[in-house]
Amino acid sequence: MNLIIQSEARPDGILVITVNSPAKYNALSIQALHELEEQLDEARQNQAIRALLLTGAGEKAFVAGADIGEFKEMPSSESRAFAEAGQRVLEKLEAMPIPVVAAVNGFALGGGCELALACHLRVASINAQFGLPEVKLGIIPGYGGTQRLTQLVGRGKALELILTGNPIGAEEAQRIGLVNHVVPLAELLPFSLQLLGQMVARAPRALASALAAVAAQGKPDGYQVEAAAFEACCQTEDFREGVAAFLEKRPPVFTGR
C-alpha cells in the first residue's frame, strides 16, 4: 500500500507533512486520516520536532475534501463513527503542543477546509479556495468545521459559508480572518517555513503554554489556565535565559528546560 501522508523532518526541527494523492486532489480518505494520526502521534513523542507544516502535493489542491467514493459505499449506520473518527484526528492536530501551520496550495474544501481550520495558523497561495460545500451533498461538515469556522470568523459569516456551501478565494478568506497570510504560490512554502522558523527560535515550553492558554479561551477556567501556565514558565531555565539574554543584548539560547 502506497503511503498518502508523507513526511520530511528538517534539520531546523520543522516536520513537513504532505498529503500526497494529487490524482484525487489529495482527498482526505480514511487511509489518509489513519496515516496522519500516526504521524501526529510520532511527532508528539519526538522532542526533536519543534513545529509542523502541513501541505498538499501539487499546485491545484491542499486537500479538496473527503473521498466521495467512500461516502457512497458507507452505510448510514456508520456515519456517526466516521465523523467522530475524523474529529479525533483533527482534535489531535489542534492540540499539538508545537506550532502547526497549514500551507494551503489550492483547493481546501470540505474535509480539507476542516483540516486547515484545525491548524494553528493558515498561509494560503493566491490561487487557494476555501469552502464547506457539504450541504450541496445533503449533509453538513462532520470533522469540526461548524465549530472551528464559527470560532475563527464569527457566527454570521460562518453560517453564510456553511448554508450556501459556496467557496471563497484566498484574499476574502484573509479579510474575514480565516487566513493569516496570502502569498504567491512560488513563495508559499518558503514563507511558511520562515514563519515557523521564527517560532522554532522561541522557548519550546513557552510556545506549548501559549497554545494551551489560547485553547482555553472562552472556557470558565481560561484565565486560571493562563495564570498557571505563566507560573510554570517562570520556573523554567529558558525564562532565566531569556531575561539574561535581553539584559545582555544577545540572542537567547533556549533548551526547552
Notes on the structure:
- With 257 residues, the protein is an alpha/beta fold.
- The protein has two domains: 5-200, 2-enoyl-CoA Hydratase, Chain A, domain 1, CATH 3.90.226; 204-247, no CATH class.
- Helix content is 47%, strand content 16%.
- The chain has helices spanning 30-45, 68-73, 79-94, 111-118, 145-153, 155-164, 170-175, 188-200, 204-215, 222-234, 237-247, and strands at 5-9, 14-19, 51-56, 61-63, 100-104, 107-109, 121-125, 129-131, 168-169, 181-183.
- Strands 1-2-3-5-7-10 form a six-stranded mixed sheet, sandwiched between helices. A four-stranded mixed sheet has the order 4-6-8-9.
- A hairpin with a 4-residue loop joins strand 1 and strand 2 (14-19).
- Helix 1 (30-45) runs parallel beside helix 3 and helix 5 packs across helix 6 (155-164).
- The longest helix is centred in the N-terminal third of the chain and has 16 residues, at 30-45.
- The radius of gyration is 19 Å and the shape is globular.
- The model has no long low-confidence stretch (mean pLDDT 93).
- pLDDT < 50 stretches: none
Mean pLDDT: 93
Radius of gyration: 19 Å
Distance separating the two termini: 41 Å
Please provide the ordered H/E string of secondary-structure elements. Answer: EEHEEHHEEHEEHHEHEHHHH
Q: Quick one: CATH superfamily of the largest domain?
A: 2-enoyl-CoA Hydratase, Chain A, domain 1
CATH architecture of the largest domain: Alpha-Beta Complex
Oligomer: single chain
Q: What is the CATH first-level class name of the largest domain?
A: Alpha Beta
At the fold tier of CATH, the topology name of the largest domain is 2-enoyl-CoA Hydratase, Chain A, domain 1
Strand content: 15-25%
Helices and strands: which structural class?
Answer: alpha/beta
Treating each run of at least 4 consecutive H or I residues as one helix, how many helices? Answer: 11
Shape: globular
> How many runs of DSSP E, i.e. beta strands?
10
Fraction of residues in helix: 40-55%
Largest beta sheet: strand ordering: 1-2-3-5-7-10
Q: How many domains make up the 3D coordinates? A: 2
Major pleated sheet: 6 strands, mixed
